[in-house]
Prior knowledge:
The protein is α+β, with helices and mostly antiparallel strands and 247 residues long. It is built from five helices and 15 strands.
Amino acid sequence: MNFSPKNDELQHDGFCWLRAALGPDEVDSAKMRLEEVLVEQAAGVLTSREQAYGIRNVLQLWPEVVEVVRQLEILEFLAQQLGPSFGAVRVLFFDKPPGRSWTLPWHRDRTIAVENHTGWKAAGFRNPTKKAGIPHLVAPTELLSEMVTLRFLLDPMTEENGPLVIIPGSHQIDSASDDDLASAEERMHFTLGAAGDVFVMRPLLAHSSLKSDEQTELRRRVLHVELSAREAPIGGLKWKEYVPLKP
């Protein structure tokens, strides 16, 4: 492993890298188990044109997924960022198969998965919805600023296979309207890495996902793990899933 982010890098830029966090065997094992979940076509598996491209509720379909985070160096890093008590609250999986690419517009990750919508308005949350049958809410900045997302690369991420692009420092802009994203392309930064690398980001970091080159044969799979410093969201709400993780 090569954990070299500076202490203030995540705070200042809104992102950093944990290089070579997973070894080749660990990457292959994760890919194999995720393929099994995709084949099962359970609730929460996302499909387009009869082909699966993602999973919303990985924690429910594969509870052992949290073991990818249970490595001493990763846990110690997270404890520095989130404090002594933190846990995984949602895990997603994204896949960009060759010939079936997709894009995401510029946005910030504002939604969280909760047990139910009770009391959401009084607690300062917005837009109650359900995704794959799971209640979701747009969370206040207070809560989102205390969260961290780990994106485990299961394939190399290159300019060819539809990488994630970001605006460094944009997590510090307190804007619910996202008006600042109108000129995002002028400030975007490519995030490129090898299989086994982990891209760490704050949820409020502005980001987008580009389309893969039409001729590419490269697949891009990402395991997206959301973590919170709080055992429960503010306002008496409860996470849909919460798995404590401590070094």
